Amino acid sequence: MKLELRNSVEVNVEILVCVRRVPDTSENEIELNSAGNDIERDELVYSINEADNYAVEEALQIVARVGGNVTVATVGGEDDEEVLRREMAMGANHGVMISDEAFSGSDGKGIATILKAFVQKGHYDLILTGVQAEDGGAQVGGMLAALLDYPFASLVNSIEVLEGKKLKVSREIAGGNKEMNEIDLPCVLSIQTGINEPRYVGMRGIRQVAAIPIPTFSASDLGLGANAVGETAAKVKRVDYFTPSLGKGAEILRGSREENIDKVLELVAAKGGLK
Amino acid sequence: MEGIQSAAQVTSWLVTGRILFLTIHLLGVVCFSLIVAKRLVPLVRAERDFRFDQPWVRLGRVLKFWLGQWKHPRYKLAGTLHIFIFAGFIVLAIRAFSVLIIGVSRNFVMPGLSGRAGPIYDIITDYAATIVFLCMVIAVIRRLVFKPARYAVPARYGKAHTADAIFLLSLIAILMVADSLFAAARAAAQSQSSQSVEVLAAFSLPWVLQKALVATALPILGGLYFGAYLVHELTFYFLLCYRPFGIQFHVETSLFNIYFAKLDREILKPVRWGVSDEHLDQVKSFGVKTFEDFTWKHMLDFYSCADCGRCSDNCPSNAVGRPLSPRFIGIKARDYAFQHYPVLGRVNNGAALIGSKDSGSIYSEDEIWSCTTCGACEEECPLLVEYIDKIVDLRRGMVDEGNVPQSLQKPLKALESRGNPYGKMEKKKAEWANAKEFQQTCRVKTLDNRNGAETLYFVDSITSYDNRMQSIGRATAKILNHVGENFGILGAAERDSGHEVRRFGEETLFMALRDHNVDAIQASGVRRIVTADPHAYNALKHDYKDVPPVEHISQVIAREVKAGKIKFNPVENESSVYTYHDPCYLGRHNQIYDEPRHVLDAIPGLKRVEMSHSRDRSFCCGGGGLMLFYEPKEDQRMGVKRVKMAAEAGANVMVTACPFCMVNIEDAIKVAGMEGKMTAIDLAELVDQQIARECPDLKEEQATEIKECVTASSNRPG
Known about the structure:
The complex is a heterodimer of chains A (about 280) and B (about 725).
Chain A: H1 2-8, E1 13-18, E2 21-23, E3 46-48, H2 50-66, E4 68-75, H3 81-90, E5 94-98, H4 108-119, E6 126-130, H5 140-148, E7 152-162, E8 166-173, E9 177-184, E10 187-191, H6 203-208, E11 216-217, H7 230-233, H8 257-270
Parallel strand pairs in A: 1-4, 1-6, 4-5, 5-11, 6-10, 7-10
Antiparallel strand pairs in A: 2-3, 7-8, 8-9
Chain B: E1 11-12, E2 15-16, H1 17-45, H2 55-67, H3 76-102, H4 117-146, H5 162-192, H6 205-213, H7 218-242, H8 250-259, H9 296-304, H10 310-314, H11 316-319, H12 326-340, H13 365-369, H14 376-380, H15 388-400, H16 406-418, H17 431-434, H18 436-441, E3 445-446, E4 455-458, H19 461-465, H20 470-482, E5 487-489, H21 499-503, H22 507-524, E6 528-531, H23 534-543, E7 550-552, H24 553-562, E8 577-580, H25 594-602, E9 607-609, H26 638-648, E10 653-656, H27 659-671, E11 679-682, H28 683-690, H29 703-715
Parallel strand pairs in B: 3-5, 4-5, 4-6, 6-7, 8-9, 8-10, 10-11
Antiparallel strand pairs in B: 1-2
Helix pairs in contact in B: 1-7, 1-9, 2-8, 3-4, 4-5, 5-6, 5-7, 8-9, 9-12, 20-28, 24-25, 26-27
């Protein structure tokens, strides 16, 4: 029944997915730089923020079911174009680069302000973000919704398009329960990883979209003043960045394999992990 | 003829036999031609495939694999039966033709059989018909009573094929009986009317029937003669027209299937025949997504499959309960072709081949990812059906659609950005060789502008980065050092060989890895390549172009043992029994079976046994490269099955020559709970361990001194 309803709804949803390029944690050995205020970036490889990739996949699946368009946008620089291309290769209809020197040093609210200005330039029914950036603090989605005065649902792990510009979304509650919510469009959702199985994009797909132009929006295009965004506007400033020293919580088991297994079982049981 | 009327002369209901049989002939031939024409329709719509080169080589293979039935004796009983049936059919083909003509022209004699050859040929055909008949009886009994497991059809693949098989076998048996009865009735009639009696081969089926009919009245003999002829005619044409609807079609297609079979099996099918790498970007769609994306030869394979089940009987994926049975890759595609290109009715097509059954798909994703490309199925197939290319093409289609399991996406992405599936840093690629203690015993150069070498040791990802497998790398380097090889490695400049990347259908990524490696190898100026990884070996040898000749370390060792440069200390543990596990990409794909065994046998005191599945019937340990990341649905691990085979053979040490085999076998020993009872060692490790180094305190020596020592020892006589 659900499937029938999904198919019968033809609403053409215009979806914007805000994405970010981050150092790939599985393919880098993250080390601090000598100044101690950032990581060593010389030999890093980057990829799309994982949760954002799930958001794009979800947008593509929604559009496949009910029609519409998917636009991916990122606030960044030239290097960040590769993630737009990757998501366009997945099937996003448009890629948009939001780039200006004035944006550098923006805090979460600054990024949300930039995105708000961009959203207001177009007509989007649904705005998706990843639940959080791998090097971020899960701030932008909520702030963007507030700035736009849109409804917001976070940690979304399923989306169903209903009649009458409404969505039914769910999120997992600690302990494994699920909460279902109805939410009016337009709205902002932050997407949890695991909501779907993102499709694979290889070099061939990226090459096929290599020639598609990606428009760039600057601060002036968006009507943003220099004091509204960037370092000057940032009220949250990073003061330190470090690898915490190992706490005492870790216990290294040094017995034989059988002894270790018994010990692990005992510890897990003691903490209530086995019932 | 006074005795009985010839078939052509018989008149009933105002129709003479001549007219009746001429009509049957025409109808039969027209029907058969129309059916075959319909069967050819998808082949015309299929993708291109270049199979028209080297006609003499192809004819030679027809002689070997078709006329010579080369692969059949691999299954003794079934193979022998088939050889008899096949030989019988060949002999009877001319007879069948002349018998058919007799219906129209009573005095027809096949050219060449008019003189003395005629009676001799007749005697041979009497026996041929008898043998084929007996084979049919045995085959039916096998199907009904003994029921070999490989003919069973698992429920998910539909109904059993037994009834169809028996039906076909019976039709052939009827054909043989009718043919024999026809000859017997004629001979019996001849003897009664004191004509010159046709000589029937003693104890043949016609002979037995003639003896039985000797006293039968002439009119009845006449009826039998005509009836047998009519049954023969009808059965013949029914069989002819029925064959293109099932497995018996291979009678017609096998000759062509073998003629057009792939000549260079090691080389993977290109994405698109006739499109060079540079132009691949212009190809709209990669791989096989719908039926017409298969090449015409692959479709001919589907038609030619005789459902003998040998492929699946040897398929490791099938053996461990993965959702893959090569037999049904073919059978399902053939049924698809029959259903969507019907003899009567319109072509209806276009559904995706992979997906849900409800949407008309015939394959599941897991089915196609389950294959380790070990090649056991192809090694076995008597009709030279190709499987790996189809699997890879289906995977190419899935990759092109973005349809790749999550477990494979991470390693593929890492291969793209870091050149290895683990996402490790390039600069750490040579760490295995750079450890200080190791560098003191065996210096391994990293090749660059300043450091050149004669030989490149191509290490590949797993041996470079995996802690356990680094030991294989170090053993290989020490062996190369011992034999005085001037060698080096590419270090950070080496990318994954891309062997499994290609076999998992990611052609574009493979090409990027290959191009990078080819550039690096050419820039290094080396003149030959050695590797200890059969997957890298296969890639460098068959997937790459314009690189120096490549050898596997087992070949190098075997040669140096023969030349006397490598001498071994006797094995210390006398209770050790060794067995050699053939890695698929060293054995089946590259026919390197003997070198590793020669090396093992050169070690004094080493006791070696063979597993029941060895050499070209080696059983895949679970697959290498990206297969290590894939999470298959299976009842048990291939490695566990393999380790148990080694134990059954009486071995307690498994020697292999591939780092991926090592991963799978060592894991399997643990999973099977056989630690302490079974160990695994790589050939290079074993050789390194057993080499008789004639300099006493080798560990303290510098590499140059080792070389002097080696030269000294190799100059010694003996």
